[in-house]
Amino acid sequence: MVAYTLINEKMLAVGLTRERVYAKKGSMISYQGDLRFQRSFLAGGGIQNLAMRQATKEELLVMSAQGTGQAYYAYNGLYVTVITLEGETMYVESDSLLAFDDRLRIGTVFLGNQGAIQGMIKGVVTDQGLFTTRLEGQGELAIVSHGNAIALEVEPQKPIFVDPNAYIGHKGQLQSQLVTDINWKTLIGKTSGESYQLKFVGAGAVYIQAYERETQP
Amino acid sequence: MTLFKLKNDRLLETILKQEKVMALAGSMVAYEGSVKFEKALLGGEGLLGVVKRKFTSETVDLMVCKGTGTIYFAHKAKEVSVISLEGEKLVVESSNLLASDDSLKTDVAFAGLRGATSGQGLFTTTLEGIGSVALLSEGNLIMLEVSSSYPLCVDPDAFVGYKGNVRQEFIFDVNWKTVVGETSGETYQLKFTGSGVVYIQPSERQKPQS
Fold first, then answer.
1. Which domain of life does this protein belong to (chain A) (predicted)?
2. Which among A66, A125, A168, A185 is most buried, taking Cβ atoms within 10 Å?
3. What is A3-208's CATH number, 3.40.630.90, 3.40.50.1260, 3.60.160.10, 3.10.20.30?
4. Residue B40: pLDDT over 90
């Protein structure tokens, strides 16, 4: 079984025995053993998924390592967190996904509600798109974050609101919704900087980072 | 008084019970409960403070968060420290301010000549009263004691703030080497005398490109 170990808070080791692991392109920093590295287009998601990624510009550039040995991964000095899925579904920003393996099924989904305003927000505000990568199954995955990633528990009667730019991912039985706080103050530019939020309702965990991605004009 | 807690070294948790807290605009990363966010037109310091900020171009975009719930604040994955004030006065670089209790009185103070070289503006934010302040720093915030017999010199670019009965002076180390450009990179310093604490960060702000 693919073994994920944190060497330190910013470095991940993945042990392989004739297995395969997918990782963010350019994140391999060293390896031992008999491993082959390859650029991967499909990454367990199939052609349909690839087409969807193309269409939504939700790019997931991954490479695969295959064989027997240890691969070490790190990315830009970001913090690494290993998350275990036990049949749950995890949604994660492609930017933040560091590594996963064949035990998990992967796809692309739209997060947030449809509509003209939301479409505008997606493009204008978050710049990352609200299309997110979905992973499902039994196994581990690794994410990267600016500062330690924090899991906030969501309970049925206690919805949580998250800044789209600090959002990394979520797992469990959660519904997400993009909520806006647009009023006349926002329109004339006197915004608090917190006009758009992702609202999560249900039971599960939301992962955030202590960092807000830059929104590009 | 609002409860300030660290969720981890880069994430501040604030628990509000029908209270108000001032924070850096855009620094909210998550919240639960019923909280409203609004741009603060007056940073708690009244009209005169706003005029001073305008005049000195000491811009700090603040927002007011009010209601009941838990709010998480963070900014660019910088380290966060919580300082509690018990009637003291804290002087802090506005760019290091993450959040402050609404019960604190804030103002803008003249900080000496240092702004001219470090490009941080000539004015600093002061906070006074009883309550908590959350500061941002690159690397862990370090607290250095100043006593009357033991003055302290600090690089203006690493300086974050000070509290207590401290006087601040600007000192130069200009000689012929500096003039011909062979500077050690430590030509200007802030000297603190009196008794209190000075907060510094293990990082030197980048000077704005001119």
1. Bacteria
2. A168
3. 3.60.160.10
4. no
Residue A118 is predicted with a pLDDT of 43
- Closest CA–CA distance from residue A211 to any residue of chain B (Å): 4
Residue A110 pLDDT level (bands cut at 50, 70, 90): low
* Whole-angstrom distance, CA of residue A130 vs CA of residue A121: 9
Q: Which of B30, B63, B77 sits opposite A147 (nearest CB)?
A: B77
Q: What does the block give as tokens for B142? A: 């370090």
Q: What is the pLDDT of residue B112?
A: 56
CATH fourth-level superfamily of B3-200: Mitochondrial biogenesis AIM24 (3.60.160.10)
Confidence of residue B149 (pLDDT cuts 50, 70, 90): confident
> Is B72 in contact with A150 (Cβ distance < 8 A)?
yes
Distance CA A203, CA A174 (A): 6
Q: Tell if the CB–CB gap between B76 and A212 is shorter than 8 Å.
A: yes
Question: Quick count: other Cβ atoms within 10 Å of Cβ A84?
Answer: 12
Q: Report the alpha-carbon distance of residue B197 to residue B164 in Å, rounded.
A: 6
Q: Domain boundaries in chain B?
A: 3-200
Residue in the block written with tokens 């998601």? A45
Contact at CB, A192 and B25, closer than 8 angstroms = yes
Q: Which pLDDT score, from 0 to 100, does residue B209 have?
A: 42
Check A212 against B10: CB less than 8 A apart. no
For chain A, the C-alpha Rg in angstroms (whole number) is 18
Confidence of residue B6 (pLDDT cuts 50, 70, 90): very high
Chain A residue at shortest CA distance from B38: A192
pLDDT in tens, B80-131: 999 999 999 998 888 889 999 988 988 877 655 544 444 454 567 889 999 9
- Residue A216 has a pLDDT of 43
pTM for this predicted structure: 0.79
